[in-house]
Amino acid sequence: MAIRAFKNYLNRNWIRVNNKMKIEFLVDPKFARDDVMVFDFQEFEWINDEKSVLEEELAGYLDHICRREEEIPVILLLRRTVSLSIVDLFKMSLKVAGEVSCSAVQFVIGSEGIRDYLENQIPPIDSMREEFLLKNCTVILATGDISEVEADAIVNASNTRLVLGAGVSGAISAKAGASLQTEMSAIAARKMLKAVDAVITGSHSLANCRHIIHAATVEGSLDTLRIAVQNCLAICIEKRIDCIAFPALGTGTGGLGIDVCAKGMIETLMAFYRKERSDLYPKTVIFILWTKGSFSVFLETFRTALNEDT
């Protein structure tokens, strides 16, 4: 694929991913038939499934193009390789582009449907937020980074070993400091956790909250998710926590679909607040979602649940 083939694609319908990078989706149906990922500008087609090799090759391509400021890198993002989905390839491309400081990237895709789907994988620049009243509790749905949310307690999606990893755990760990893992390891040494368990620690260097509740949801089952949410809310009652913020538990390493997660978390919350003595429960519950697609799913699920509850 030669550079000349892309001169007609420069539409400049940019979507800003963050303050440093913007992207553009360019739809061309003729590429819907192909089953490879192509980095243009060097007549290079990629069909290797080795993720680490692919990341290295992609980084080399993007770094090479981004240093030549007069050109914009173009990636043909097609259906999939044998083991990597189109979403995997898209997220990998954004990650690598950020690492090599690309200010703009164009993605050529095969259909409008793929574009709409991939746009929902991008964190929105402008925060999205909706509020609802559930008995005496304010439920907030919002996009953002849970490690920056103002709350009495934030919830970390943990494993049963209480070892901080990537995703939500990584974001919290980076800001809370090494002392958080020290406290978590001490708890794990005293008590063997099982999936569904939740434990509470201090917030350490996180100034936006007083506590972190670690919910063991890495197993990724709906039943585990429901019980873990109940256990987090029970800790709130015990510790007199008035405001708690949840991420989309179980959707990272756990592998739960966002629709399943939304249904499980929202139904569990609503069932919890139907009980007597709800005056003891948190007055504010926040669901923090990373992408606008996740936000939309939670919003639709919550509205449906409210309508069915009336």
What would you say about this model in short?
With 310 residues, the protein is of the alpha/beta class.
Q: What does the model show?
A:
This protein is an alpha/beta fold and 310 residues long. It has two domains: 3-119, no CATH class; 129-309, 3-Layer(aba) Sandwich (Leucine Aminopeptidase, subunit E, domain 1). It is built from eight helices and 13 strands. It has a seven-stranded mixed beta sheet with strand order 7-8-13-12-9-11-10, with helices on both faces. It has a six-stranded mixed beta sheet with strand order 1-2-6-5-3-4. Helix 6 (222-239) packs across helix 7. It is globular and about 65 Å long. The chain starts with 14 loop residues before the first strand and ends with a helix. Residues 1-11 and 33-47 have low confidence and may be disordered. Keywords: Glycosyltransferase, NAD, Transferase. This is Appr-1-p processing domain protein. It comes from sediment metagenome. InterPro entries: Macro_dom (IPR002589), Macro_dom-like (IPR043472), Mono-ARTD/PARP (IPR052056).
